Amino acid sequence: MKNNDISFFFNPKSVAIIGASPVAGKLSHVIMNSLKDIGYPGAIYPVNPKYKSIDAVECYHSATDIKADVDVAILCIPANGVLKAMDDVIKKKVKGAIIVSAGFKEAGHEGVELEEKLKKISREAGIRIMGPNCLGIFDNISKIDTFFILRERVRRPSLGGLTILSQSGSFAGTIMDELSAEGLGVAKIVNYGNRVDVGESDCLEYIAEDKSTKVVGLYMESVDDGKRFIEAAKRCTQKKPVFAIKVGRHEAGMSAAKSHTGAIAGRYEIYSAAFKKAGIIEVKGYSEFLDACKVLSKQYPAEGKMVLIVTDGGGMGASVADACSDFGLIVAEPSQKIKEILASKLPPFCAVGNPIDLTGSVTDDDYVMALRETMIEYDAAIIMVLWGPPTLTDKLIGMLADAAAELKKPVIICSPGGEYSHKRNKMFEEAGLPVFSSPEEAARAAAVLAKTTHS
Amino acid sequence: MKNNDISFFFNPKSVAIIGASPVAGKLSHVIMNSLKDIGYPGAIYPVNPKYKSIDAVECYHSATDIKADVDVAILCIPANGVLKAMDDVIKKKVKGAIIVSAGFKEAGHEGVELEEKLKKISREAGIRIMGPNCLGIFDNISKIDTFFILRERVRRPSLGGLTILSQSGSFAGTIMDELSAEGLGVAKIVNYGNRVDVGESDCLEYIAEDKSTKVVGLYMESVDDGKRFIEAAKRCTQKKPVFAIKVGRHEAGMSAAKSHTGAIAGRYEIYSAAFKKAGIIEVKGYSEFLDACKVLSKQYPAEGKMVLIVTDGGGMGASVADACSDFGLIVAEPSQKIKEILASKLPPFCAVGNPIDLTGSVTDDDYVMALRETMIEYDAAIIMVLWGPPTLTDKLIGMLADAAAELKKPVIICSPGGEYSHKRNKMFEEAGLPVFSSPEEAARAAAVLAKTTHS
Known about the structure:
homodimer, alpha/beta, Rossmann fold, 3 domains, seven-stranded mixed sheet, 40% helix, elongated
C-alpha cells in the first residue's frame, strides 16, 4: 500500500499549507515566503478556517475544499491538531505530508502515542509522512523550500551538487547557512526530524538515482532499520561519495540526541562499522563534516595517503606535517631524483624535503614549480601560503588553480592569518580551490579525500 | 661575563640598523618603518657605508662611528658579512644584537660553523645575541617592532596582556596577524629563530617578572637546555598561565622542524613530560594554540572539568556534547533540584538535561535564566547560539556578557553559521566573550581552561 517512490516530495505540482497564517514571523507564514522566495513554480493552497485569503491568495477552510489535486501538504499546526488535520489530508488523497509541528516524541509520553498513530495512518492510508518536528525540504533544482527559518538569518546556498540529509533540524539549518557563507553549491537539504515514516534510507534510495546530486552528506543520531540503511547506502555509494556523521558518540551526546528527537542512539561502534560496510566516509564532528562538504564538492578524490606539503614558512609547515600525521596521512620525502631537480631550481637555503620550504624569499613561480615537479609521487598536496613575503602576488591564486586543474589531483590551500589572507582566501575559493585557515583543518580535509578510496 | 638581564632588548634607548637601506621592500627598510610606525621613542642609527643618509636620517659608515651609546644592534646583512659586522658592534660596546639575517644552521655546514663562531663571540665578549634567522621583538608597551613583515600584509595587534615566545618566525608572524584579526590584545611577541644565545629560557625568566604580561604562549621545536627550561618555566607558571606547543611531534614534523631552524627536535614525549613538570598547559596544534590565546586572554580559568551546555538546537547541542567528551570534559546532567527549577521556568518541550535545549522557541531571557540557575553546579559553560529563531535579539549579547561577568566562571560562546552569525560573533567578542564557530573549537577551548587547574 505504501508508495515507495518519494520523488513527488521533491517535485510537487502543488502544496497545501495547513495552518497557514498572514501573521509575519509565524512558522506557516515563513514557509509560504520561503516557497515564494525560492520561486516555487507550482500552486500554493493556504488552508485555515480563520481566513478567506492570505497575502492575496485564496485560503481554504479545509484541505478537502481545494478543487485541484494536491501533491504535498505541509502541516504547521499544534501537535494536538495534527491527527484531525491528517484525516482531511488523506480524504483529499494527498501523496505526502510534511509535518513541521514539534511537540511529539521529544515532548514526552503523549507525543510518543501521537507518533504511533501517525505511523499507523501512514501505513494504512498509504500516505508518506516526513517529520514531525522537521524543516522538510530545500531543493535548489525543483525550487522547493519548506524551511521555516527567515532568509535574513539563514541564507540559502547557491546551486551545486551537494545534498545534505539530516535527522536534526538545527544541524540542517546551520550547515545551510555555513554552505551559503562558504559559497558552496547545494542540490538539496532534507530534514526529516522525528522520522515516523520517511527517513535516511528512503532519502538515500532516492538520492542514489538523483542526477543533480554529486556528493551526499548525512547526519545521523539514530537509525530506523539498520539492514535497510546499509542496503540503501551501498546503492548510493556505488554512484557517488557519501560521508556521514553519527552524533551521540559518547554517553553525554547520546542522551542529548535522545532527548531532542526522542530517538535512542545506539552504540557508536555499530554505526562506525555500518558506515564502513556501506562504503560511507565517516566524519567525526561538525567541523569535519563542513570540511568534507568543502573538499568533496571541489576536489578529485585522493588515490592514496601520500601528501605533499609546500610552504613558505618552516614552522607553519612543520605544523601541517604534524597535523597530517595525526590524521593518518603519510608525509614522506620526495625521491632523491626529484629532490635534485628541486634543489637545482631553488635557492640553497630552501628545504627540499616534505614539507618543501620555499622560505620568505618565495616567488609565485616557486610554488607552481615545486607542485608540478613533485606531484607525480603524491596523491594530494597541501599548499600553505603565508602572504608575508612581499614577493608573492595575487597572480599566485590563478596559477595554483590552473596547476591543480592540470594535475587532476587534490590540491588544498592552507592560509592562516588576518585580513590580508582572508581576502585572498575568498579569491582562492572563487578560483575553485578549497581553502582552510589552519593546518589542522587542511590536514583533516586531505584525510577525508584520502578516505574516498580507502573505505 | 654574560649579561643575564635581557630586559634591555625590550627597552633599548637606541638601536643601530646594520645594513640599513633606503630601498623600499628591503628587509632593513621594512624594519626601519616598523620601528617608526609603532612609534619607537628612542634613537635609530642606520649603518651602511654606501649611504650618507636614509629617509632623512644620518647614516653611519660603521657602528663605531656612532657617537651616542647604542643598546641594540639589528643586523640585516648577508650571513657571510655578519662576523665582520659583529666586530664593530662589540667595539661599540652594544649590549645586544638581533641578527635577522638567514643563511646559518638552516642552510648547511658552513652555516653551522658560523653559528659556532657567534656563540663563542657572545660568550667571550659578553654580548647577548638574538637570532640569527629571526624576526626579533614586537613590544606593544615599549614600542619596539623589529619584524620585517609589511604592516599591509601582517597587521600589528592592539595592546593587551598576551605574550608569545616563538622559535619559528612564520609562526610568530602568522599568529600576530590572527591575533590582530581576532582583536586580541598583545604585550609582546618574540621570535629568536636559530637561538645561538637568547632562547626560551631567557625569555621566560624575563617574562615571569614582566608586569605587562598576563598570559604566555610558547612555540617550541627544540630546547637548548632542558633543565634550565623547566626551572625558568616553573618560575613563570607560578605567576601566570603559560601554554606551549611542541611542533615536530611526529617523524615528518620533526624532520621539517630540523631542516628549517637546524635544530634537532627531541622525542615528543619528553617535551610533554617537561611541560607537565613545569606547570605548562600543553596545546597540540596551531588551532588549539589560537584557541588558548583567545580563552586565556578573556576568561577566568575553570576550576574543574564539569561543563554545562546550553543550546537552542538539539542536534547541534549534541555535537557540542560529543566534542566535550572527546576533549576530556565531563558533561553531567544538573541535579534533580535544578532540573525542577528549569522545568518550572521553561516550556514543556525544552530538554532540561545537559545540554539544556531551549529549542527554536527560545527567548533572550531563557538563555540567561538557564545559565544563572545552573552554573553553581558547573565549572564552565558553552552557550551555543543559533540565530535562526526570530525571537532572539541582539540584546542577548550584552545580557550573556553581564551574566558571565557576575558568575566569575568561564562562559564560552559557540555560534556556527553564516553572515548573520559572523556579525554577531564580532559583537560577542567586543562584549569580551570568547566566541568559536564550531562545536569542536568551543569544546577544545573549554578543555584548555580546565587544564589551567589540572596540570
